[in-house]
Amino acid sequence: MTTPDPFFRRDGELFQPTQSARGPWDPTSLHGRVAAGLLAHRIEQEFGDPDFLPARFTIDMYRLPKITTPAAVTLTPIREGNRVKVIDAEYLVDGVSMARAICLFLRKSENPEGEVWSPPNWDAPLPQDIAPPADNRGGMGGMWNTRPIRGGFGATGAHKRIWMNDFRECVEGEPMTPFVRAALAADFASPFANSGDKGLNYINADITLYLHRLPAGEWVGFETMNHHATAGVSIAECWLYDEQGPIGTSSVAALAQRRTPRG
């Protein structure tokens, strides 16, 4: 069985994107989700700690990197305290900043006593109980797998639901951890919540991923919970799940955008 290409291959201190990392807006540009995955990967490699949870991961994506050009990643600890750690990471191409992420780590402990309201778990079927789509090449022609539950691209009803999973390595030969899986997946909130009856016409400029626990297993579930747009600027939010229940949320801010035709 052929191993799928990863999104990046390591070349010393640099990371070379593969064609599998191509984005939807320009045939020569990188997909924003893989930049998010790479920055999360490097943050976790250098600063991850089993006693801390990456409770918030925010990435601002202000340039479209070329897929042919390798990237450098710089890491800067902002705060390394006993209960809180804050790490800055930057995606650079030829010395030019393309994207920047901040990760907030919080020390794990025990929940305090008392009852606090939480929304109920969703009642979605598990991914293994859903037949694959008729066109089973995967999203973006093979970037991820999906198991649609309710609604989808082009649907306008509330609370669209879907399972998705990444089957490619983020960096060749380096394990796909639960945090990296969540960071890669989080960008999916933009196309899922921002698409409507005319397709997808918004490009997100950021992702904010909140986690109260790391995902278990290979599937991440999305449920659209919010979308509003004015003057070509949208905000959108999805609740995130794994097969055990809720894990967090993903929110995005996006701009109206037209696609560049693929060659």
Question: Could you walk me through the main structural features you see in this protein, from its secondary elements to its overall organization?
Answer:
It is a single chain. With 263 residues, the protein is mainly beta. 12% of the residues lie in helices and 39% in strands. It is built from three helices and 13 strands; from the N terminus they run ββαββββββααβββββ. The strands form two sheets. Strands 3, 4, 5, 6, 7, 8, 9, 10, 11, 12 and 13 form an eleven-stranded antiparallel β-sheet that branches. Strands 1-2 form a two-stranded antiparallel ribbon. A hairpin with a 2-residue loop joins strand 5 and strand 6. Helix 1 runs antiparallel to helix 2. The chain is globular, with a radius of gyration of 18 Å. The two termini are 29 Å apart.
Can you lay out the helices and strands and say which pair or pack?
Blueprint: E1 8-11, E2 14-17, H1 32-47, E3 52-61, E4 72-80, E5 84-93, E6 96-107, E7 145-150, E8 161-165, H2 178-186, H3 189-194, E9 202-204, E10 206-211, E11 220-230, E12 233-242, E13 245-256
Antiparallel strand pairs: 1-2, 3-6, 3-10, 4-5, 5-6, 7-8, 8-11, 9-13, 10-13, 11-12, 12-13
Helix pairs in contact: 1-2
Characterize the largest beta sheet: strand count, sense, and whether it forms a barrel. 11 strands, antiparallel
Q: Helix count?
A: 3
Q: What is the share of helical residues?
A: 10-25%
Shape: globular
Taking Cα atoms only, what radius of gyration do you get, to the nearest Å? 18 Å
Q: What is the tally of beta strands?
A: 13
Estimated structural class: mainly beta
